[in-house]
Design goal:
The complex is a heterodimer. Chain A is of the alpha+beta class. Chain A contains five helices and five strands. Chain B is of the alpha+beta class. The longest helix of chain B has 28 residues. The radius of gyration of chain B is 28 Å and the shape is globular. Classes of the chains: A alpha+beta, B alpha+beta.
Chain lengths: ~150, ~775
């Protein structure tokens, strides 16, 4: 067992973990942040995307011990002072989700997309979320949601 | 007095979903988010060969691992639960939840481990040793039908799961066929199109894999189950039956469900095993499917081979259609497996007035993951076979594909229309759908654009496809589970409305659409309506969500129950307002006398009165809660027309979808925003099937496309912006006029894209290409080879 110290959504947390424990499992099972989902076991689907030190990362592909000393933001930490993040609001307004399972990861990827490309074209949005799978929406309303959020920032 | 705020009518509006605030904040509860004190994790040891006899199964090392609670083999489990039931009246081989002696597909469970956490459970699975005597793997469908290279189930010679059945023209109720009319049709034809087509096997891949938590409480003798399922009530009934419990002793909960697409209708071995293991150990257990596990353990979709013969005059008038279907159902019959391809037969008439049709079907076992429902379930296959044949006819006769269809449509004044296949299409206007689509796409301009592109040497093609769908399933005669839906509506003491529905959503947005309908019905704000679902302790009865039935069947049950409550509420309000109940209107949170809007009592005050009824009006019981079961008399038949433009890269063979126009008629729309989302999702799955998705097995029965690394899931970059246009032809089958829309997108899009791709490659003499339209396949055609 190793002890890891991670700042999660602004709060210092500690956990005892096996070296093989994935970050996503620590977030979900030890910190009870179940908004981060697992959709595959090969790093393809992006449902587990969180921000590690400000960059989107697939938390199923990081051992918890690798995240020691990092700052992690999950979907639960995205809204500030009770106000939805523009992307959360965009997804709601544009019907950017159906079953909601891919949504947290999709939103966390889009956070990085909009930080790097504040005014993206549709093609840039599609490219930017190509690492996240959604089986429900056909992506069109997700694209709309991100565009809406970009326009409102 | 302040003027009353007038509430907008909500049905038909693009209302934002009420489900979303929790989901966009990561606060939904999916099955893997459920935790119970003392909960153990279970994991399955699965066969890594397609066909073989278990010679040795050694679980001793696994059992001895620290943290392992128990290990059960198939033989041990067989003492706890009966063989797996199916939901169709077809013959089926014995199917144990965990294999006892023979494994019949890669992924079939051979043992289950119960352990402290999921990591230990996986360690224990890895420590189980299995030795098999390999048997020949049955992979090739048409070879399987000859009993080669092996017979999978001894009681099913030649691997025939369902010996040939026939339907259509000249086939009587007993299945006896008279060939006179179909033979005449083909004898009179100027042209006959014949093509072998494969509607390939797909992996449903809901983004949330399956999962179950089972909690048997020995002190109570009752079981609570959380499962990622589309139909908790069916789960409850079947688990109760398997464990020998009464239905009252089992509570099934479908929490937030991360997509289903038909693959979460089936009640799976893992659900029965979790329940049985929890009961045997007296401990709560959780099983969460891993993705690569889901690829082999969750049912697949489609996989129907069709031999299509279409007879027509030289003017393109279709005289007859023969559809010979062979379905590869995999290793076992699951809940609805055997019934799915019969829907392909049912829809062989498509949108056309065809004088003679004969469909036959054989279902065949192979050493593959079993098939079952997948979005569209049998109907996309029918659409695909017929529409491809229509395109080949158009090409053969050099008639515009739109025109050849126009010459064969069922006329709009012939509805209700009894098809050759035994369906009664409720309502429709197929020619109008075609015209709307041609106009929306700019068909003539697109043709000019295509021709101009071709002059520049580009490989550009156009495709067009009609479809008609069976939705709102369906009368109880067509579903062994019952084809009704149930709802209960309660006006609470404070005037808030709580409604419970047996339709169990997994992304469809019923909490929003159903609330829209009730808010309008009672004239109260949307925020005052709460929709409950997905819990058999809260929703007394239900069937579930599949076959695009939520709105058409579940929604109707809801407004029926609502109407009963409203009628009773009017009986309470009448004496208060000194008016006859028939003269009351419910609007803006007020119940008032027609024509006297200021005379009213607030909805809340009438509700309170109904629960403290002093005096109690003559003949009334206190309270405001009513229920309804809606049994539809028929299915509904949505329809539409899709048009696409595809370009194939001459160098690489890669196809690119440039444009997709979809005209869909789903009857009355409750929330067009949600409807568009449903259509987009269906289109994505249909386009995925056409272009990239394919479950591929090798000759040993190994699934080569067994993870997201190998199975091509559509990504955002695979699609252009879809262009939708709605048409509304209400159904007479239910009072809402709603037909259902969940599956529509998968029907029109597949033949439409294949047509466009074949058109793009027309200069190479190609007439048909089987899906998926992989670049390698198209590149070979461009190089002068065969598809």
């Amino acid at each position: 067992m190793s002890q890891v110290a991670i700042i999660v959504n602004g709060k210092a947390r500690k956990a005892d973990v096996e070296p093989r424990m994935l970050l996503v499992h620590v977030l979900r099972e030890q910190f009870n942040l179940t908004g981060t989902h697992l959709g595959c076991d090969t790093s393809q689907c992006g449902a587990c995307t969180v921000l590690v030190d400000g960059r989107s990362a697939k938390s199923c592909t990081i051992f918890a011990v690798q995240a020691d000393g990092s700052e992690v933001t999950t979907i639960e930490g995205l809204a500030t002072d009770g106000q939805l993040h523009p992307l959360q609001k965009g997804f709601w307004d544009a019907h950017g989700l159906q079953c909601g399972y891919c949504t947290p990861g999709m939103i966390m990827s889009a956070v990085t997309l909009l930080r790097d490309t504040p005014d993206p074209t549709e093609a840039q949005i599609r490219e930017g979320i190509a690492g996240n799978l959604c089986r429900c929406t056909g992506y069109q309303h997700i694209v709309d949601a991100i565009q809406l959020a970009a326009g409102r920032r | 007095m302040a003027t009353t705020h007038v509430l907008p009518k909500l049905v038909g509006q693009r209302i934002k979903r009420r489900e979303d605030p929790r989901l966009i904040q990561g606060r939904g509860t999916y099955v893997d988010d459920v935790k119970i004190v003392g909960m153990q994790h279970i994991a399955f040891k699965r066969s890594d060969i397609a066909h073989g006899r278990i010679r040795r199964l050694d679980v001793s090392v696994a059992k001895a691992l620290e943290g392992v609670e128990a290990v059960f083999t198939g033989a041990q489990l067989a003492e706890l639960i009966r063989p797996m039931p199916i939901g169709t009246p077809f013959p089926s081989p014995t199917h144990r939840a965990i294999a006892v002696d023979v494994v019949r597909y890669v992924g079939e469970a051979v043992a289950v481990v119960v352990a402290r956490d999921r990591y230990v459970a996986r360690d224990a699975v890895d420590a189980i040793v299995v030795e098999y005597e390999p048997l020949p793997a049955v992979v090739d469908l048409e070879r399987a039908m000859t009993g080669q290279p092996a017979v999978i189930h001894a009681d099913f010679p030649n691997n025939i799961a369902l010996p040939q059945i026939a339907s259509g023209t000249g086939v009587d109720a007993s299945g006896k066929a008279d060939d006179t009319k179909i033979d005449q049709a083909f004898a009179a034809a100027d042209v006959v199109i014949s093509q072998r087509m494969v509607n390939q096997r797909l992996v449903p891949n809901a983004m949330e894999p399956r999962g179950v938590v089972a909690h048997y409480e020995p002190g109570k003798g009752s079981l609570t189950m959380w499962s990622s399922t589309q139909n908790p009530h069916i789960l409850r009934s079947m688990v109760a039956g398997m464990l020998g419990l009464g239905e009252s002793q089992v509570r099934a909960i479908a929490p937030e469900v991360g997509g289903g697409f038909g693959a979460k209708i089936n009640i799976y071995a893992e659900e029965y095993v979790a329940a049985a293991v929890s009961k045997a150990l007296g401990l709560p257990v959780k099983w969460i499917e891993e993705r690569t596990e889901a690829f082999v353990a969750t049912t697949h979709g489609r996989d129907i081979l069709g031999y299509v013969d279409l007879a027509a005059t030289k003017d393109g008038k279709v005289l007859g259609l023969k559809l010979r279907l062979i379905a590869d159902i995999g290793a076992y019959n699951m809940l609805l497996t055997a019934a799915i391809p019969t829907l392909t037969m049912l829809m062989a008439n498509a949108t056309y007035d065809i004088p003679a049709i004969r469909a036959t079907l054989v279902e065949v076992f192979t050493n593959k993951t079993p098939t079952d429902a997948y979005r569209g379930a049998g109907r996309p296959e029918a659409t695909y076979f017929v529409e491809r044949a229509m395109d080949m006819l158009a090409a053969e006769l050099r008639i515009d594909p739109a025109e050849v269809r126009r010459r064969n449509f069922i006329p709009s004044d012939k509805f209700p229309y009894a098809t050759q296949m035994g369906a009664v299409y409720d309502s429709g206007d197929y020619e109008k759908a075609l015209d709307v689509a041609l106009a929306a796409a700019g068909w003539e301009a697109l043709k000019a654009e295509r021709d101009a592109a071709r002059k520049q040497g580009r490989l550009v093609g156009l495709g067009l496809s009609m479809y008609v769908e069976v939705c709102g399933v369906g009368p109880s005669a067509s579903l062994p589970t019952g084809g009704w839906e149930h709802a209960q509506v309660t006006v609470e003491r404070d005037g808030r409305i709580t409604a419970a529905t047996g339709a169990s959503p997994h992304g469809q947005g019923n909490e929003t659409t159903f609330a829209q309908m009730l808010a309008d019905q009672f004239g109260v704000p949307l925020e005052h309506v709460t929709i409950l679902h997905g819990d058999t302790a809260v929703v007394k009865q239900g069937i579930g969500t599949f076959g695009s039935r939520s709105q058409a069947v579940g929604g109707t049950a809801l407004v029926m129950a609502g109407a009963r409550v409203k009628a009773k509420m009017a009986k309470f309000a009448g004496p208060l307002l000194e008016a006859h109940e028939a003269d009351l209107v419910f609007e803006n949170g007020i119940i008032s006398v027609k024509g006297l809007p200021t005379s009213g009592k607030s909805f809340k005050d009438v509700a309170s009165y109904a629960y403290v009824p002093v005096p109690l009006p003559e003949g009334l019981e206190p309270g405001l809660s009513e229920e309804a079961f809606f049994e539809p008399k028929n299915n509904t038949y949505p329809f539409g027309c899709h048009i696409s433009m595809v370009e194939v890269d001459r160098q690489t063979g890669e196809p690119r979808l440039l444009k997709l126009v979809a005209v869909d008629d789903a009857g009355t729309l409750i929330n067009p925003l949600i409807v568009e989302g449903q259509i987009h999702g269906g289109l994505a799955q249909g386009i995925g099937q056409a272009l990239i998705e394919e479950a591929v097995y090798d000759e040993q029965g190994q699934l080569l496309t067994g993870s997201f690394m190998d199975y091509a899931m559509p990504r955002a970059t695979d699609f252009p912006r879809f262009e939708l246009q709605a048409m509304v032809t209400p159904t007479p089958v239910n009072p809402l006029g709603a037909k259902g829309v969940g599956e529509a997108g998968t029907l029109g899009s597949t033949p439409c894209l294949v047509a466009a791709t074949v058109d793009a490659l027309r200069e190479f003499g190609v007439k048909h290409i089987d899906m998926s339209l992989r670049p390698e396949k198209l590149w070979r055609i461009i190089q002068g080879g065969r598809a």
